[in-house]
């Protein structure tokens, strides 16, 4: 699609969108996008870290855009504000909102660089400090969300954890799967901690795998650093479990898929090639109001914008089909690579 056609399409707003003063993805600041499809209101909610210049609120927190068609989005509104008396004073990265036991739970990563951990970082020139995923809860999808248990981390505060996501296993038991930060390990990892019905940790975390297991991940900064972030888990018709996650490779930030053929959280895991590269990362799969799978990612890493892709579910995995430039209005679209298919 040519740029003039994209601009014309962006201007062809429906009446409801013009009345609401909506935005389109090229003008929407976002990082680590997470979309919830609300079938009751026929609305998509896109959660991301609050940007005061966009939302109009100066708060450190989370904002949400709303849309009915994935192209026209309302100006975002603040849905969560980190309290001034919290132990954390920065972050609000990677917000995710999950339905659990009749309420909506926000998983969000916060930190405080002034709170050093006892164990120093193994990476020369780096420090380890408190960084954790915390929970907040609301009765409505649009919040306001309030901290659970005063903002205490889900995993022990001595561990640098980020990008926590809710995973419910085949037996209905909840887990938080998260990235264990490279600042503390040098080679980042993914781990899982068992939760009770109040989403409180009930045991010690267990490692799933390290980023070095991926054939696509590359060491960074000449120090053997391997990044792991943005885990998302999905089950396919054959019962296998798939993790969508991000790292850095030969072509920058990228998305990849790993697969546990047994369907068990602790594998063994198989690791696929790059799914989408050139700065594409921290994505998630969601189903549209019509029931079709789509992928949302941010690209590039800095000054990120949302990009949308059609995804096909296979019997044992997922396949990228095409970028939806009719929705994200991307003037420089990136087609999926030829290898962007499910693991065999």
TrEMBL record:
| InterPro entries per record | GH43_arabinanases, Glyco_hydro_43, Glyco_hydro_beta-prop_sf
Q: Which GO terms describe its molecular function?
A: hydrolase activity
Q: Which CDD domains match?
A: GH43_Bt1873-like
Q: Which key words tag this protein in UniProt?
A: Glycosidase, Hydrolase, Signal
Q: In which pathway does it act?
A: Glycan metabolism; L-arabinan degradation
Q: Which residues belong to the signal peptide in this entry? A: 1-19
Keyword Membrane included in the entry's annotation: no
| Keyword hit for Transport | no
Domain of life of the organism encoding this protein: Bacteria
Q: Which family does it belong to?
A: Belongs to the glycosyl hydrolase 43 family.
| Matches recorded under PANTHER family | ARABINAN ENDO-1,5-ALPHA-L-ARABINOSIDASE (PTHR43301), ARABINAN ENDO-1,5-ALPHA-L-ARABINOSIDASE A-RELATED (PTHR43301:SF3)
**Protein name, entry field:** Glycoside hydrolase family 43 protein
Q: Which organism is it from?
A: Pelomonas lactea
């Amino acid at each position: 699609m040519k740029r003039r056609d994209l601009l014309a399409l962006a201007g062809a707003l429906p009446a409801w969108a013009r009345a609401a003063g909506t935005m389109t993805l090229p003008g929407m600041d976002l990082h680590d996008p997470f979309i919830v499809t609300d079938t009751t209101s026929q609305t998509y909610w896109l959660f991301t870290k609050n940007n005061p210049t966009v939302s109009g609120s100066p708060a450190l927190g989370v904002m949400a855009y709303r849309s009915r068609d994935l192209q026209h989005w309302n100006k975002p509104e603040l849905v969560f504000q980190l309290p001034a008396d919290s132990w954390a004073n920065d972050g609000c990265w990677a917000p995710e909102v999950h339905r659990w036991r009749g309420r909506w739970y926000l998983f969000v990563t916060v930190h405080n660089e002034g709170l050093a951990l006892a164990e120093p970082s193994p990476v020369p020139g780096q420090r380890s400090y408190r960084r954790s995923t915390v929970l907040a809860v609301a009765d409505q999808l649009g919040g306001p969300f309030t901290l659970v248990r005063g903002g205490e981390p889900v995993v022990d505060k001595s561990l640098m954890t980020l990008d926590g996501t809710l995973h419910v296993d085949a037996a209905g038991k909840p887990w938080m799967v998260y990235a264990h930060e490279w600042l503390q390990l040098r080679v980042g990892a993914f781990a899982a901690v068992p939760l009770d019905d109040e989403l409180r940790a009930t045991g010690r975390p267990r490692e799933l795998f390290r980023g070095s297991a991926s054939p696509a991940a590359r060491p960074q900064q000449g120090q053997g650093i391997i990044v792991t972030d943005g885990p998302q888990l999905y089950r396919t018709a054959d019962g296998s479990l798939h993790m969508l996650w991000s790292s850095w490779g030969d072509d920058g930030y990228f998305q990849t898929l790993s697969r546990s053929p047994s369907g068990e959280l602790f594998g063994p895991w198989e690791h696929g090639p790059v799914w989408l590269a050139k700065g594409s990362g921290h994505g998630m799969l969601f189903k549209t109001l019509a029931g079709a799978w789509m992928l949302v990612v941010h690209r590039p890493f800095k000054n990120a914008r949302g990009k949308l892709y059609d995804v096909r579910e296979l019997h044992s995995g997922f396949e990228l089909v095409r970028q939806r430039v009719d929705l994200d209005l991307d003037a420089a679209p990136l087609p999926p690579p030829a290898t962007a298919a499910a693991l065999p």
